[in-house]
Design goal:
The protein is an alpha/beta fold and 338 residues long. It is built from 11 helices and 12 strands. It binds pyridoxal-5'-phosphate. The site of pyridoxal-5'-phosphate (PLP) has 11 residues, from helix 2.
Length: 338
Amino acid sequence: MINHRGPEFAEIIDRMTANFKTILGTQGRAYFLTASGTGSMEAAIVNTLSAGDRVLSISIGSFGNRFGDIAEAYGAEVTRIEFEWGTAADPEKVRETLVSMPDCAAVIVTHNESSTGVMNPIADISKVVHAESDALILVDAVSSAAGVPLPMDDWGLDVVGTASQKSWVAPPGIAMVAMSDRAWKAHETSTIPKYYFDIDQYEKFLQIGQPPFTPALSVIYALDHSLQAIVAEGIEEVLTRHAARAQQTRDGAKRIGLELFPDASIASDTVTAIRVPEGIDGKSLVSRARDEYNVELGGGQEKLAGQIIRIGHMGWVQPEHIDESIDAVEKSLADLRA
Ligand SMILES: Cc1ncc(COP(=O)(O)O)c(C=O)c1O
């Protein structure tokens, strides 16, 4: 490990901040926190809101619910719109709710709902939010950023939170947060108690090329490398690669006679959710693929337990990985039916 208060670290954090901002298309501020993705969601809430603030939480699944729960835990007055799992948020419904909340301080929403394999129309939701209110828009982009288009400034997003272990091709341990000027202004008046995630400390220390606290240095090394690799490959190339792997996964599922869980028009480009066929136990399918074919599938979470399987294809995924996964699903299904 290196000294995180020395010149080498200063060089790394500078480069990482610049590359992260380039990839997200933002002129705003960016910070790296030692935490998992949920830390980026919590940082978004505690740095922009005050207890009693009205918040509109848009949820299409388990992670959307979590975002609402975090805001509630810190004393926000949360209005929740929940869409059926497997569907995307409807911007018109968001508009209807928002017009009845003139004092709404923030809209919180998941970009890519990993629990259902659905991608929300964030650009359209953001347009509605800006047209109808002064609310900030805080986005859980944990499983979307660097895998699907998310031009933060062009789409008018105020906080984007993501995590090293997803499309960023690094191990878990670093939460990444980008903030617009509007979010920074809100931060200046935010009164939610905070310490470890207080972005003020990260900003002050960033000025001298240091982190406020000891960071997960080993993950920082990996993430620095990945950010450079993404910029070198070109973000457009990276996104095209993700879209191709997603299409390959959807085509593969269809080829072996399976049905996607969401409609293809809203299906995620980083994780594909597939219905478990009638008469098959989803949990047995996941363990069969793991135990017999060495392929780790995701199962359904909460109310979808046993009903869907999920194939993740974010990050450095090659066509043969998808072929192998589809093949494992096909063989496991045949085994379970035998
Ligand atoms: C959309 C989304 N949000 C939040 C999280 C939580 O991230 P973590 O488990 O790193 O805290 C995940 C993790 O899978 C996710 O997919």
